[in-house]
Specification:
Radius of gyration: 23 Å
Bound molecules: uridine-5'-diphosphate-glucuronic acid
Distance between the termini: 49 Å
Helix content: 40-55%
Number of helices: 15
Mean pLDDT: 96
Largest sheet: 6 strands, parallel
Structural class: alpha/beta
Strand order of the largest sheet: 10-9-8-11-12-13
Length: 404
């Protein structure tokens, strides 16, 4: 957008890696963009906050806010970042909260800082795997401000985008973030419940979701049934919103059900496999997909990893493949599973194939070859991405969520 950006982190190794052009996670096109902007001199990195914050007109805080053990938010990284910023931020700067934080945080930060520093809330709606596209073409930009200076700095920052800016109180902006993620998660749990019913009554969730989503009031997106949502955002944000509602005397029963449905959806899927195979002890299960969704190497709260672990607990031998998430999965499930070099290698002598992440390339595999290599013929598609391939005609017993 034409601004100069200095990234500050206390993790010196991360800063060194970024300086040499290494992005520490997979995000399509991000490496190219940061290398290009670094070469142009508009993007730099430092672990020295005094250097990074000097002359900054706007300082974004974008540290992680993971869940705490009670379902609330662990704010320790956030508050230590605020303390760091408070030492070096220039008089007249605007501190912008980008991290997802509990409602009331903006006001608490303002109380901590001198009046000369404005504080704004600017929640992010980027999706992993599509972050650059979402950044340049957002559906909307939300800003919680309590003074004119923050408003004009934010207007200038985003003057290059076509998206509408919504200015509101900091509390409202903080709530928009949670309300948006929780609504999307609710859509997923809702369609998964409809899919479970569809299976019982002989309906096909693909037709149902398509037709339901055509109603503009409902919308087509986030109606893909399957093994449910994961990732570093939905599970923690939905729990945090439920927790905050409780703290404020609101019994948000809908959210408790959204969480419950999501957990049960994974268990239900594994139970389906067990009821078909009889027992998992000694069975060979191939799993395609480990990331919490396609387009990322992130396995945090991944339904795929959960299913791998559940299969292992039931005594199965598990062989896995993911186009991007193998290294992260190795750190998580390590020596207890076999890691295949390709999707086809993973299915050798498998009794059943499980598809756990919606990578489009899984639908492009040679299923005659899959059949040759497998010992059994069962495919459990937790993301319904193979559902159009007529795999039953190829001699497979295909199961998709909510598909008869
Ligand atoms: C989510 C939100 O979509 C972003 O707007 C938000 O900025 C971000 O969280 C955040 O709070 O930082 P992300 O975690 O990248 O983004 O993932 P999504 O693309 O939303 O997918 C979440 C999960 O839902 C995945 O496990 C995916 O497989 C699942 N999903 C998605 C479904 O099961 N069905 C669907 O129809 C859509």
């Amino acid at each position: 957008m034409g601004h100069s950006v200095v990234c500050v982190d206390i993790d010196e190794n991360k800063i060194l890696a970024l300086k040499s052009g290494t992005v520490p996670f997979f995000e399509p096109h991000l490496s190219e963009l940061v290398v290009q902007e670094q070469a142009r001199g508009r993007l730099s990195y430092t672990s020295d906050a005094s250097e990074g914050l000097c002359k900054a007109e706007a300082v974004f805080i974008a540290v992680g806010t993971p869940p705490d053990e009670f379902g609330g938010v662990n704010m320790s990284a956030f508050w230590s970042a605020v303390d760091g910023v408070a030492q070096f931020i220039e008089y007249d700067s605007v501190l912008i909260i980008k991290s997802t934080v509990p409602i009331g945080t903006n006001s608490a930060v303002r109380e901590k800082l001198p009046n000369s520093i404005s504080v704004a809330s600017n929640p992010e709606f980027l999706r992993e795997g599509r972050a650059i596209k979402d950044f340049f073409h957002p559906d909307r930009i939300v800003a919680g401000v309590s003074d004119e200076r923050s408003k004009s700095v934010i207007e200038n920052l985003y003057s290059q985008t076509q998206a509408q800016l919504f200015f509101m109180s900091p509390e409202s902006a903080e709530l928009v973030k949670y309300a948006s993620n929780a609504f999307l998660a609710t859509k997923i749990s809702y369609i998964n419940e409809i899919a479970n019913l569809a299976e019982r009554v002989g309906a096909d969730i693909r037709d149902v979701a398509l037709a339901v989503g055509e109603d503009k009031r409902i919308g087509k997106d986030f109606l893909n049934a399957g093994i449910g949502y994961g990732g570093s955002c939905f599970p923690k944000d939905i729990s945090a919103l439920h927790y905050m509602a409780g703290e404020n005397g609101c019994d948000f029963t809908l959210l408790a059900s959204v969480i419950d449905v999501n957990n049960k959806q994974r268990e239900r899927f594994v139970q389906k496999i067990i009821s078909d195979l009889g027992v998992l002890e000694g069975r060979n299960i191939a799993v395609w997909g480990l990331a919490f969704k396609n387009g990322t190497d992130d396995i945090r709260e991944s339904a795929a990893i959960d299913i791998v672990v559940k299969c292992l607990e039931h005594g199965a031998n598990v062989c896995v493949f993911d186009p991007k998430a193998m290294e992260n999965a190795y750190r998580s499930v390590g020596s207890s599973v076999a890691f295949a070099k390709t999707a086809l290698d993973a299915v050798v002598r498998a009794d059943a194939l499980v598809v756990a992440t919606e990578w489009p390339e899984f639908a492009l595999q040679d299923f005659d070859e899959v059949k040759n290599r497998m010992r059994g013929n069962k495919i459990y598609d937790g993301r319904n991405i193979l559902s159009n391939l007529k795999l039953n005609d190829k001699g497979f017993e295909y199961y998709g969520v909510g598909i008869k």
